[in-house]
Amino acid sequence: MADRGIVDGSRRRRWSAGDVQEAFVISGQIPLWLVDGDDRIAFVNDAAVQLLGYDSDDELLGRPSHDTVHWKHPDGSPYPAEDCPITHATRRGEPIRIERDWWVRKDGSLVPISIHCVHMEIDRRMGTAMTFHDLTASVQAEDERRRLDVERARLGEVRASRARIVEAADQQRRRLVRDLHDGAQSGLVGVVMELQLALKGEDVPDGVRTLVGDALDHTRAAIDELRELAHGIHPSVLSHRGLVGAVRALAGRASLPVVIEITDERYPNSVESTAYFVAAEALTNVAKYARASSARVATTRTAGHLVLTVDDDGIGGARPSAGSGLAGLADRLAALDGTLTVSSQPGEGTQVRAEIPLPAGTPDGRR
After folding, report:
1. 164-167, long-range: CB within 8 Å, 24+ apart, which pairs?
2. Whole-prediction pTM value?
3. Which of 69, 185, 320, 326 could cross-link to 103 by cystine, CB 3.0-4.6 Å?
4. CA–CA gap between residue 110 and residue 288 (Å, rounded)
5. Which candidate, 258, 351, 257, 260, places its Cα nearest to that of 311?
6. Lowest-confidence range among 56-65, 121-130, 142-151, 260-269?
7. pLDDT digits (tens, 9 = 90+) for 285-326
8. In what order do the strands lie in the sheet containing 96-104?
């Protein structure tokens, strides 16, 4: 039996084209292509005919192999036979395996294939047997992966760009506040000091004294309004004392008791600013609409987010509307890839919850 196996193995290279044809016709699953010594198609099975878009093998038999299915590159440029590795391997009698190539279908479209070529005797001359596999599905999957990678990269660029816009806006806020303090506010303080000196004069007529006193009152009011404006743009306490200090300042001006559960941990400027403005808008809404007796502002930190919640025990039923302050804050959070949600069942109070992403590398200040 062993000797017979050896004999059978040695005879395989001398099988006729007819024997090979019969075997593959019976299987009919793997596309097969036989090329004779003149590089002409000697046999093609049904699987290959279908894959290449022909109606029958009669359309292929006897035609030059390369010039029929391999005559152009994927970009449409000509592919001469002298440049074809399959043709060279056939002429040299060498086996060849190509993991990715493109053959031309009957309608001129290209199909991606992998090819395995072996040298064999065909009609008493050395030719080539080629088996090939359709790679359309895998190529489409690769294209889809590349497309998704590109989309992810673009999305990452958009998110980073939006975050930079928010940070730039916050920087402008801080710069504007400094300019107001160092410019207009300092100038008005100087006016107050000069008016106070004028009032100390002994020979100031009563009428002038009254006018100077009125001007002093107006100037002080203007300073207060300017400070309130600067506070609304970006409170200096936020820069100096962080989120907890700024929220405490908010609570100190609130018309109802506010419980604060925030640590003194510092965060990146854009995160602190966003959290502060959410707290400020939410507490303003509590005072205006909630009919609450108390409120609570708290923060927690997850692996990648700072979560700020503002709760009240008011009448509930809040519905953020387009153009409202909360809607604008939702847009700001979206620019940072964060979220803002409002839970407000009638009679059960309201919770405003902001999840603010923390930039990679943000120190963990928890103890």
Report:
1. 165/335, 166/270, 166/274, 166/332, 166/335, 166/336, 167/269, 167/270
2. 0.52
3. 69
4. 68
5. 351
6. 121-130
7. 999 999 999 999 999 998 889 999 999 999 998 877 766 777
8. 41-44, 32-35, 125-134, 110-122, 96-104
